């Protein structure tokens, strides 16, 4: 664990992690559940720093089945997923609490939306600096370096931390 930066709180059997335990990754994602032979095995839950969670059944380190729940309580359902699809583009909070009056837009599921630092983009799990190509979480902790594909996607689709004039620009 000292090499990976992870932390284990639980029992050992023959030098292997086994039984009910907590396993905390360096990203602060935490697994709480059953371990066997050093792997997730049985029922367990992954708690993510964003507040979301994955409740699952694991077999030899691999998930067999499970349910992902977003931090706002929305549960992902692969068969009956109707959230923000081509037929209904409302955010989950709009489904739960209703739409805003005409002329007042809701830009994200969080209302009011996060304030984005100038020069950065909000890419959903943190802020992206296009100059350094680094994504940091909303508490300013390093998440990852963006590759070329992610960089292009963020530039093309994510909210910016600055205003731009759209359409006709008057001559001065």
From TrEMBL:
It comes from the Eukaryota. Gene3D superfamilies: Histone H3 K4-specific methyltransferase SET7/9 N-terminal domain. Keywords: Cell projection, Cilium, Flagellum, Repeat. SUPFAM superfamilies: Histone H3 K4-specific methyltransferase SET7/9 N-terminal domain. The keyword Repeat applies. The keyword Repeat applies. SMART domains: MORN. It is found in: Cell projection, Cilium, Flagellum. GO terms for cellular component: motile cilium. This is MORN repeat-containing protein 5. It comes from Camelus ferus (Wild bactrian camel).
